[in-house]
Amino acid sequence: QVQLVESGGGLVQPGGFLRLSCAASGFDFDSAAISWFRQAPGQEREGVSCIESDGSANYGESVMGRFTTSRDNAKRTFYLQMNNLKPEDTAVYYCGTPCPPQVDYWGKGTLVNVSS
Question: How far is CA 23 from the centre of its chain?
Fold first, then answer.
């Protein structure tokens, strides 16, 4: 069955960086599109990025210019590089497939805490 497993979250100071990973199995990876979302306490889930099978990507306005998503087909893994992190980036980050409007499968999430 489809499995998505996020990793790489943790505590980081403002201005710092983290790289999240999403390990995928159970579906045709090469043709898949993957989305990243995040959900802060008491808030709705927010779209962060989407990367298509051809490697093209788009980003939410709040992370544009700071976050970069990529894929390694050989490792069946997607990545979210997050630079210049801000306290408002604190959230649980999820990967899902495919991209909106219809995301059928989700991982369990990884917590990112940006705090001094």
Answer: 11
pLDDT digits (tens, 9 = 90+) for 41-89: 999 999 999 999 999 999 999 999 999 999 998 999 999 999 999 999 9
> Is there a cis peptide before residue 87, judged by omega within 30 degrees of 0?
no
**In angstroms, how far apart are the furthest CA atoms of the chain?**
41
Determine the Cα–Cα distance for residues 77 and 24; give it in Å rounded to an integer: 6
Nearest to 111 by CA among 82, 76, 72: 82
pLDDT digits 0-9 by tens, 14-50: 999 999 999 999 999 999 999 999 999 999 999 999 9
The answer to whether 77 and 21 are in contact (CB under 8 A) is: yes
Residue whose structure tokens are 């069946």: 76
Q: What is the DSSP letter of 89?
A: G
User: In sequence order, what are the beta bridge partners of 38?
Assistant: 46, 93
